[in-house]
Design goal:
five-stranded parallel sheet; Rossmann fold; alpha/beta; Serine Threonine Protein Phosphatase 5, Tetratricopeptide repeat
Length: about 450
């Protein structure tokens, strides 16, 4: 009887996993995960801890089926071939990866498998519509979100599929490593990981999705879905979410659906132009004059800029591996347009610490804020971090939660714009820049490259 390997990557679930169904259809299947140093090495402690928890959750679901997740460590080109040989597999099944590194890696694995007489089979992807599928009338990729989103919706997607029923499972008898269980830094509060947790989170959000359009920009309330981390690791698939959203008619559900379309648009842009993982989509912005990343970058990273909304976001990031999306935009604008640093410095910091750090979404949202990407915000739109806090966190609950120095309303009546004496009294830094001055400086530098 033929055997196969199911190589899990960004699809750490059993339900709605077409690649797994294809593997099971082949006969006995080995559930495999490769700890790839190229991805594990750059990850920060929050990302490592979350991935470890997600793998343990997947292993737990497999153990309910009287098998386990076989984990190996090393170069996937070598380790996948060795694992497939060990169980006599004819095919290795995966969900297709469309990121720059994933495409190269899979091509190399495919070649190595072919040389060993085996086949790499791609079924499905982390997206409702795989990158490259949605094109305009000339067969070219879309460069603007709005027409992409319409074509994406018109293209449609298959419905969710059930997890496999009866199946025969295989395990590696040697060369495996323990499931990763890295030490979690003190005070790091990570969300619950795994497919079951994703399902519970999704059902909870559906009960309040009608309020999403109004509440999603308010960091002090429970207004967003917090599903981004589950999407990142494939603990839930967007097809599952879109199927449920199709039964909702409110404005909140429509807005959330558009957010899923943004995720798929950015994945398509990165697939079409992989250089944008590191470089500006609009190359003229590389000519802009930027400042060297010195003490001010460290102040930004550690949440010590003296701008409460920015500092709250950066501290939330280090404490939870997550940051509210509105605050991400404010923090990004501050780094690029108040500190005059290249967006890549901030994007790297986010990718290191965010448990939901998705390369396409992260890099292109940074470029949107920096003005050098697709559908870019006009460069003259410079977020005022103080007024953003006053508008979207009017009672100061978000800032007070994450900036300890500003938490006491009796000592700090205005957490968004405390006066200099209050700052000194509670030990909170004075602003490291003058926002009004730096806004004009940013516009002057932009004019110089126009």
């Amino acid at each position: 009887m033929p055997t196969s390997v199911m190589w899990f990557r960004r699809d750490l679930r059993l339900g709605d996993n077409p690649a797994l169904l294809e593997a099971v259809a082949d006969g006995p299947v080995l559930p495999l995960f490769v700890l790839d140093p190229a991805l594990w090495g750059p990850a920060g402690p929050s990302r490592r801890a979350y991935l470890g928890a997600s793998l343990r959750a997947l292993d737990g679901r497999l153990r309910q089926r009287r098998t386990r997740l076989s984990v190996v460590r090393g170069d996937p080109v070598r380790r996948v071939v060795l694992a497939a040989r060990a169980v006599g597999a004819e095919r290795v099944h995966v969900a297709a990866d469309f990121g720059p590194y994933g495409v190269r890696r899979d091509q190399e694995v495919e070649k190595a498998l072919a040389e060993a007489g085996m086949e790499l089979v791609r079924t499905g992807s982390p997206y409702a519509v795989a990158p490259g599928r949605v094109t305009n009338g000339s067969g070219e990729p879309y460069k603007v979100y709005t027409p992409f989103s319409k074509a994406w919706s018109d293209h449609g997607w298959r419905g969710p599929v059930d997890p496999p029923g009866d199946a025969s499972w295989l395990e590696l008898e040697k060369d495996t490593t323990d499931l990763p269980d890295p030490r979690v830094p003190k005070r790091l509060e990570l969300p619950e990981a795994g497919e079951a947790a994703a399902g519970r989170r999704w059902e909870e959000f559906l009960d309040r999705v009608d309020a999403y359009d109004d509440d999603r920009d308010k960091p002090g309330v429970n207004g967003t879905s917090h599903l981004s981390v589950h999407l990142k690791w494939g603990e839930i698939h967007p097809r599952t979410m879109l199927a449920a959203l199709s039964r909702k008619r409110g404005k909140g559900a429509a807005t959330y659906r558009r957010e899923l379309a943004w995720r798929e648009f950015y994945a398509d842009v990165l697939f079409q132009q992989p250089r944008t993982a590191r470089h500006c989509l609009r190359p003229e912005f590389a000519r802009m004059r930027y400042d060297p990343p010195e003490d001010q970058l460290e102040a930004w990273r550690t949440g010590r800029t003296g701008f409460p909304m920015v500092d709250a976001g950066l501290r939330q990031l280090r404490a939870t591996g997550w940051m509210h999306n509105r605050v991400r935009m404010v923090a990004a604008s501050f780094l690029v347009k108040d500190l005059h640093l290249e967006w890549q410095h901030g994007a790297r910091h986010f990718m290191r610490w965010l448990v939901d750090g998705d390369l396409a979404s992260n890099q292109h949202n940074w470029q949107w804020t920096a003005g050098c990407g697709t559908d870019a915000a006009p460069y003259f739109r410079v977020f005022n971090p103080t007024s953003q806090g006053q508008k979207f966190d009017p009672d100061g609950s978000y800032v007070r939660r994450w900036v300890d120095e500003l938490s006491d309303p009796d000592r700090v009546p205005d957490p968004h714009d405390p006066d200099p004496e209050t700052r000194d009294l509670v030990g909170y830094p004075q602003p490291i820049v003058d926002h009004k001055h730096e806004r004009q400086e940013a516009l002057d530098r932009w004019q110089a490259i126009r």
